[in-house]
Amino acid sequence: NKCLLITYAIIIGVLVLLEIGCVVVAYFFYDKIVGVMTTALAGALNSTYDSTWAVTPSNASNYVYTPGGLLSKGIDAIQIEFSCCGVNNYTDYINGYPASCCASA
């Protein structure tokens, strides 16, 4: 049906324009977006990250670790997969860093 085809083309065109708009906005506000995301992730690390065992530099090689909730498991998975720790480094954690900081992928 010609009417449905035109409607579909219009919807796809609008979606493409929205995607282009998002890319342009992200380009011009990159620094602000990174700042907001960094602040939010750093806050999540210390306010909602739940680990029953934190690693300190003295016992980093010998640990028994029990992960916390869903957010904690997600943070652990990211840190293990990308071999990273925290947003910038392990000092992002206030009360010792989690065992996933020491894990290798």
Task: Report on the architecture of this protein.
The chain is built from three helices and two strands, in the order H-H-E-H-E. Mean pLDDT is 79; it is low at 62-66. It has helices at 2-28, 30-47, 70-82; strands spanning 54-55, 97-98. A two-stranded antiparallel ribbon has the order 1-2. Helix content is 55%, strand content 4%. By secondary structure, it is mainly alpha-helical. The longest helix is centred in the N-terminal third of the chain and has 27 residues, at 2-28.
Helix content: 55-70%
- Main pleated-sheet profile: 2 strands, antiparallel
| Strand line-up of the largest beta sheet | 1-2
> Could you give the distance between the termini?
53 Å
SSE arrangement, N to C? HHEHE
Structural class: mainly alpha
**Strand-residue proportion:** under 5%
Radius of gyration: 21 Å
Q: Report the average pLDDT across residues.
A: 79
Q: Count of DSSP helices?
A: 3
The total of beta strands comes to 2
Low-confidence stretches: 62-66
Gross morphology: elongated
